[in-house]
TrEMBL record:
<dbReference type="InterPro" id="IPR001031">
    <property type="entry name" value="Thioesterase"/>
</dbReference>
<protein>
    <submittedName>
        <fullName>Alpha/beta fold hydrolase</fullName>
    </submittedName>
</protein>
<dbReference type="InterPro" id="IPR020802">
    <property type="entry name" value="TesA-like"/>
</dbReference>
<dbReference type="InterPro" id="IPR012223">
    <property type="entry name" value="TEII"/>
</dbReference>
<feature type="domain" description="Thioesterase TesA-like">
    <location>
        <begin position="20"/>
        <end position="242"/>
    </location>
</feature>
<comment type="similarity">
    <text>Belongs to the thioesterase family.</text>
</comment>
<dbReference type="InterPro" id="IPR029058">
    <property type="entry name" value="AB_hydrolase_fold"/>
</dbReference>
<dbReference type="GO" id="GO:0016787">
    <property type="term" value="F:hydrolase activity"/>
</dbReference>
<dbReference type="Pfam" id="PF00975">
    <property type="entry name" value="Thioesterase"/>
</dbReference>
<keyword id="KW-0378">Hydrolase</keyword>
Length: 268
């Protein structure tokens, strides 16, 4: 694939539609392994590998949402040869949204669908809840969110490896300020756990204000990491939405050359 930013879990399938997954704060590409296995080979599933973790652990993590978005936007051109969608969880949802906005600013083909999971919609006021400026606050938040990631803090050696990217990611999210602009023209599916301790359902539903193409709210059983126990259900939601909104074929190729045929998803 030729990029440090994307991982594919197996051979590239002969798929008409690509799904690009963006992990949560402190997460790595492997967070979407189970979902990729459910959706492949119907879709070509790629997962983003942020700097500072796993096979990129020697690289300094990027503690700024803008820098992450800019880097990802620069890597998107080879992946825009077919309709593609973004699935972002928690911090990844914020990145997916801002990446779609950045691609629109650059007049590049954007996603045909956004799946925004485990994240409240941005507002002009922002949120102080993400301003975790000490290791103790970060660890307390991770334990509150639950999921298997919280167990790493019981192992000092593992903790030493995971803290640098965790610090950077929470610093990036905490410093994020939403810049007003026109809403996207991209269909959005919002997913949230019904027991998420930091993302109320109403706050997640507010993503509908950021698109003119309609939004669908899906509330699943579980907490912040509901996906760990609901992979088949989430895969079904993704599959159904992409079958309805991704339109591969000649129209998409024409779009890449600056045309916008009626009924074909355009650069967003």
């Amino acid at each position: 694939m030729g990029s440090d930013w994307f991982r594919r879990f197996g051979p590239a399938p002969d798929s008409d539609v690509r799904l690009i997954c963006l992990p949560h704060a402190g997460g790595a590409a492997g967070a979407f392994l189970a979902l990729a296995r459910e959706l492949t080979p119907e879709f070509d599933v790629l997962s983003v590998q942020y700097p500072g973790r796993q096979d990129r652990r020697r690289e300094p993590p990027l503690a700024d949402i803008g820098l992450l978005v800019d880097a990802l936007a620069g890597e998107m051109a080879p992946l825009a040869d077919r309709p593609h969608a973004f699935f972002g969880h928690s911090m990844g949802a914020l990145l997916a949204y801002e990446l779609a906005r950045e691609l629109r600013r650059r007049a590049l083909p954007g996603p045909c669908h956004l799946f925004l999971s485990g994240r409240f919609a941005p507002t002009p006021q922002g949120s102080d809840s993400d301003r975790l400026d000490t290791d103790e606050k970060v660890i307390a938040m991770i334990r509150r969110l639950g999921g298997t990631v919280g167990k790493v803090f019981d192992d000092p050696d593992v903790m030493e490896m995971v803290m640098p990217p965790l610090r950077a990611d929470y610093r990036a999210v905490g410093a994020y300020t939403w810049q007003p602009g026109p809403p996207l023209a991209v269909p959005v599916t919002v997913l949230v756990g019904d027991q998420d301790p930091v993302v109320p359902v109403a706050a997640a539903a507010a993503w509908r204000e950021h698109t003119t193409a309609g939004s669908d709210l899906r509330v699943l059983p579980g907490g912040h990491f509901y996906l760990d126990q609901s992979v088949p259900e989430v895969a079904g939601i993704v599959r159904s939405a992409l079958r309805a909104t991704a339109v591969p074929g000649p129209g998409w190729r024409a779009l890449l050359h600056g045309e916008s045929p009626v009924g074909t998803p355009g650069p967003q």
